[in-house]
Write a structure and sequence with these properties.
It contains eleven helices and five strands; from the N terminus they run H-H-H-E-E-E-H-H-E-H-E-H-H-H-H-H. With 205 residues, it is of the alpha/beta class. The mean pLDDT is 86.
Length: 205
Protein backbone atom coordinates (compact mmCIF):
# COMPACT_ATOMS: atom_id res chain seq x y z
CA UNK A 1 0.00 0.00 0.00
CA UNK A 2 2.76 2.44 0.97
CA UNK A 3 4.60 1.78 -2.30
CA UNK A 4 1.40 2.34 -4.30
CA UNK A 5 0.74 5.65 -2.52
CA UNK A 6 4.32 6.84 -3.00
CA UNK A 7 4.32 5.85 -6.68
CA UNK A 8 1.10 7.76 -7.40
CA UNK A 9 2.41 10.75 -5.43
CA UNK A 10 5.22 11.00 -7.99
CA UNK A 11 2.62 11.90 -10.65
CA UNK A 12 -0.16 13.63 -8.69
CA UNK A 13 -0.27 16.21 -5.91
CA UNK A 14 -0.55 14.93 -2.35
CA UNK A 15 -4.15 16.19 -2.21
CA UNK A 16 -5.12 14.26 -5.36
CA UNK A 17 -3.28 11.16 -4.15
CA UNK A 18 -5.08 11.41 -0.81
CA UNK A 19 -8.48 11.60 -2.54
CA UNK A 20 -7.65 8.55 -4.67
CA UNK A 21 -6.81 6.41 -1.62
CA UNK A 22 -9.36 8.12 0.67
CA UNK A 23 -6.62 9.37 2.96
CA UNK A 24 -5.66 12.67 4.54
CA UNK A 25 -2.91 14.58 2.66
CA UNK A 26 -0.78 14.55 5.82
CA UNK A 27 -1.04 10.77 5.78
CA UNK A 28 0.24 10.76 2.19
CA UNK A 29 3.15 13.02 3.19
CA UNK A 30 4.05 10.68 6.06
CA UNK A 31 3.90 7.61 3.80
CA UNK A 32 6.10 9.28 1.14
CA UNK A 33 8.68 10.21 3.79
CA UNK A 34 8.74 6.63 5.09
CA UNK A 35 9.09 5.13 1.61
CA UNK A 36 11.91 7.53 0.70
CA UNK A 37 13.74 6.77 3.97
CA UNK A 38 13.36 3.02 3.35
CA UNK A 39 14.62 3.39 -0.21
CA UNK A 40 17.67 5.38 0.85
CA UNK A 41 18.50 2.87 3.57
CA UNK A 42 18.22 -0.16 1.27
CA UNK A 43 19.47 1.22 -2.03
CA UNK A 44 22.32 -0.57 -3.75
CA UNK A 45 25.00 1.94 -4.53
CA UNK A 46 27.56 1.12 -7.15
CA UNK A 47 31.13 2.09 -6.26
CA UNK A 48 32.00 5.72 -6.80
CA UNK A 49 35.46 6.14 -8.28
CA UNK A 50 35.52 9.69 -9.69
CA UNK A 51 34.01 12.49 -7.61
CA UNK A 52 33.61 16.22 -8.21
CA UNK A 53 33.35 18.49 -5.17
CA UNK A 54 32.36 22.16 -5.36
CA UNK A 55 30.40 24.83 -3.56
CA UNK A 56 27.39 26.82 -4.72
CA UNK A 57 26.01 30.04 -3.27
CA UNK A 58 22.45 29.50 -2.07
CA UNK A 59 21.54 33.13 -1.43
CA UNK A 60 23.12 36.58 -1.24
CA UNK A 61 26.03 36.90 1.14
CA UNK A 62 28.41 34.16 2.16
CA UNK A 63 25.93 31.29 2.39
CA UNK A 64 27.15 28.16 0.64
CA UNK A 65 26.25 24.56 0.01
CA UNK A 66 28.79 21.81 -0.64
CA UNK A 67 27.84 19.50 -3.51
CA UNK A 68 29.35 16.14 -4.42
CA UNK A 69 28.89 14.62 -7.90
CA UNK A 70 29.63 11.21 -9.37
CA UNK A 71 31.47 12.48 -12.46
CA UNK A 72 31.46 9.10 -14.20
CA UNK A 73 27.67 8.89 -14.23
CA UNK A 74 26.81 12.59 -14.01
CA UNK A 75 24.77 12.13 -10.83
CA UNK A 76 24.39 14.45 -7.85
CA UNK A 77 25.27 12.37 -4.78
CA UNK A 78 25.16 14.64 -1.76
CA UNK A 79 24.48 18.20 -0.61
CA UNK A 80 25.67 19.68 2.70
CA UNK A 81 25.28 23.01 4.46
CA UNK A 82 28.30 25.37 4.31
CA UNK A 83 31.71 24.77 2.68
CA UNK A 84 33.89 23.78 5.62
CA UNK A 85 36.05 20.76 6.36
CA UNK A 86 33.46 19.37 8.84
CA UNK A 87 30.81 19.67 6.09
CA UNK A 88 32.73 17.43 3.70
CA UNK A 89 33.75 15.15 6.58
CA UNK A 90 30.04 14.43 7.12
CA UNK A 91 29.83 13.14 3.54
CA UNK A 92 32.76 10.78 4.04
CA UNK A 93 31.37 9.64 7.40
CA UNK A 94 28.04 8.75 5.78
CA UNK A 95 29.87 7.05 2.92
CA UNK A 96 31.91 4.94 5.32
CA UNK A 97 35.64 4.31 5.62
CA UNK A 98 35.75 1.29 3.31
CA UNK A 99 33.90 2.98 0.43
CA UNK A 100 35.86 6.22 0.91
CA UNK A 101 39.09 4.30 0.31
CA UNK A 102 37.82 3.03 -3.07
CA UNK A 103 37.61 6.58 -4.48
CA UNK A 104 40.25 6.94 -7.19
CA UNK A 105 39.98 10.57 -8.33
CA UNK A 106 38.57 13.74 -6.76
CA UNK A 107 38.26 16.91 -8.82
CA UNK A 108 37.95 20.14 -6.85
CA UNK A 109 39.05 23.74 -6.68
CA UNK A 110 41.91 24.83 -4.43
CA UNK A 111 39.74 25.37 -1.35
CA UNK A 112 41.95 24.13 1.49
CA UNK A 113 39.04 22.92 3.65
CA UNK A 114 37.95 20.46 0.93
CA UNK A 115 41.50 19.41 0.15
CA UNK A 116 42.23 18.59 3.80
CA UNK A 117 39.04 16.52 4.17
CA UNK A 118 39.82 14.55 0.99
CA UNK A 119 43.42 13.87 2.06
CA UNK A 120 42.25 12.55 5.44
CA UNK A 121 39.22 10.51 4.40
CA UNK A 122 40.05 9.43 0.82
CA UNK A 123 43.82 8.87 1.06
CA UNK A 124 43.95 6.70 -2.08
CA UNK A 125 42.36 9.33 -4.31
CA UNK A 126 44.33 11.36 -6.82
CA UNK A 127 43.40 15.04 -6.44
CA UNK A 128 42.83 17.06 -9.62
CA UNK A 129 42.45 20.83 -9.46
CA UNK A 130 40.01 22.17 -12.02
CA UNK A 131 41.39 24.12 -14.96
CA UNK A 132 39.40 27.29 -14.24
CA UNK A 133 41.08 27.88 -10.88
CA UNK A 134 44.56 27.02 -12.18
CA UNK A 135 44.22 29.58 -14.98
CA UNK A 136 42.83 32.08 -12.46
CA UNK A 137 46.05 31.77 -10.43
CA UNK A 138 48.08 32.12 -13.62
CA UNK A 139 46.24 35.33 -14.54
CA UNK A 140 47.03 36.74 -11.10
CA UNK A 141 50.70 35.91 -11.62
CA UNK A 142 50.73 37.67 -15.02
CA UNK A 143 49.11 40.72 -13.46
CA UNK A 144 51.66 40.74 -10.63
CA UNK A 145 54.47 40.78 -13.19
CA UNK A 146 52.73 43.60 -15.08
CA UNK A 147 52.34 45.75 -11.94
CA UNK A 148 55.90 45.09 -10.85
CA UNK A 149 57.27 46.04 -14.28
CA UNK A 150 55.11 49.15 -14.53
CA UNK A 151 56.86 50.45 -11.41
CA UNK A 152 60.24 49.74 -13.01
CA UNK A 153 59.64 50.91 -16.60
CA UNK A 154 60.13 54.46 -17.75
CA UNK A 155 59.80 56.51 -20.90
CA UNK A 156 58.40 54.97 -24.08
CA UNK A 157 58.12 51.45 -22.66
CA UNK A 158 55.91 52.67 -19.81
CA UNK A 159 53.70 54.54 -22.29
CA UNK A 160 53.22 51.39 -24.39
CA UNK A 161 52.23 49.24 -21.41
CA UNK A 162 49.78 51.65 -19.80
CA UNK A 163 46.17 50.36 -19.60
CA UNK A 164 47.10 46.86 -20.80
CA UNK A 165 45.81 44.81 -17.85
CA UNK A 166 42.67 43.39 -19.48
CA UNK A 167 44.40 43.15 -22.84
CA UNK A 168 46.98 40.77 -21.36
CA UNK A 169 44.45 38.76 -19.34
CA UNK A 170 41.94 38.23 -22.16
CA UNK A 171 41.93 34.95 -24.08
CA UNK A 172 43.45 35.56 -27.56
CA UNK A 173 40.28 34.38 -29.33
CA UNK A 174 38.21 37.01 -27.47
CA UNK A 175 40.31 39.97 -28.61
CA UNK A 176 38.78 42.55 -30.90
CA UNK A 177 40.65 43.57 -34.07
CA UNK A 178 42.00 46.79 -32.51
CA UNK A 179 43.08 44.87 -29.40
CA UNK A 180 44.94 42.30 -31.51
CA UNK A 181 46.76 45.09 -33.32
CA UNK A 182 47.78 46.72 -30.05
CA UNK A 183 48.90 43.39 -28.61
CA UNK A 184 51.06 42.67 -31.67
CA UNK A 185 52.83 45.98 -30.99
CA UNK A 186 53.35 45.16 -27.31
CA UNK A 187 54.88 41.72 -27.88
CA UNK A 188 57.74 43.24 -29.89
CA UNK A 189 59.17 44.46 -26.61
CA UNK A 190 61.29 41.82 -24.87
CA UNK A 191 60.10 42.52 -21.31
CA UNK A 192 59.09 40.22 -18.45
CA UNK A 193 55.47 41.29 -19.05
CA UNK A 194 55.58 39.86 -22.57
CA UNK A 195 57.35 36.69 -21.44
CA UNK A 196 54.72 36.18 -18.72
CA UNK A 197 51.98 36.69 -21.32
CA UNK A 198 53.48 34.00 -23.59
CA UNK A 199 53.80 31.54 -20.70
CA UNK A 200 50.06 31.80 -19.97
CA UNK A 201 48.72 30.07 -23.16
CA UNK A 202 51.55 27.52 -23.03
CA UNK A 203 50.52 26.56 -19.52
CA UNK A 204 46.83 26.43 -20.47
CA UNK A 205 47.64 24.11 -23.41
Amino acid sequence: MARAVAELARHLSWQETARHFRLDWKGVAYIVQRVVAYGLEHRRRRPWHVLGIDEVSRRKGHHYLTIVHDLERGVLLWVGEDRTEPTLTRFFTELGRRRSRTIQVVCLDMWQAYLKAVQIHAPNAQVLFDRFHLVQHLNRAVDEVRRSEMRRLSGQEKTFFKRTRFLLLKNPWNLRTDERERLSTLVRWNTPIVRAYYLKPEFAD
